[in-house]
């Protein structure tokens, strides 16, 4: 192997190792929304719909939860999934927020 081929091989191998080392982060699940997050507070988000204060949020009705909201895009049966109200984060399937809209 001449010097040029060896140098090229080493550069490609280093690039591949770097890509493999950081690639796992791209497939990691997004962090769950924290109820103390500013957006979560403004939307009245609760990770457990059963803990919603119905007096404070009269729109809430028993049985409403993120999993049956039109904005929730998580897969059926998963504990959490994405919601456009919280970009880059996941909401609990059993959660609720004031933007809730029944899925058709």
UniProtKB/TrEMBL annotation:
InterPro entries: High_potential_FeS_prot (IPR000170), HIPIP_sf (IPR036369), TAT_signal (IPR006311). Residues 27-104 form the High potential iron-sulfur proteins family profile domain. It comes from the Bacteria. Keywords: 4Fe-4S, Electron transport, Iron, Iron-sulfur, Metal-binding, Signal, Transport. Pfam families: HIPIP. SUPFAM superfamilies: HIPIP (high potential iron protein). Residues 1-28 form the signal peptide. The keyword 4Fe-4S applies. Belongs to the high-potential iron-sulfur protein (HiPIP) family. Homodimer. This is High-potential iron-sulfur protein. It comes from Paraburkholderia unamae.
């Amino acid at each position: 192997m001449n010097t040029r081929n060896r140098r090229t091989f080493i550069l490609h191998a280093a690039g591949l190792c770097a890509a493999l080392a950081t690639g796992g982060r791209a497939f990691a699940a997004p962090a769950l929304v924290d109820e103390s997050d500013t957006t979560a507070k403004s939307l009245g988000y609760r990770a457990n719909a059963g803990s919603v204060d119905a007096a404070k949020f009269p729109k809430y009705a028993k049985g409403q939860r993120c999993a049956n909201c039109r904005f929730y895009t998580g897969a059926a049966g998963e504990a959490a999934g994405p919601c456009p109200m919280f970009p880059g984060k996941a909401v609990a399937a059993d959660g609720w927020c004031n933007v809730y809209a029944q899925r058709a």
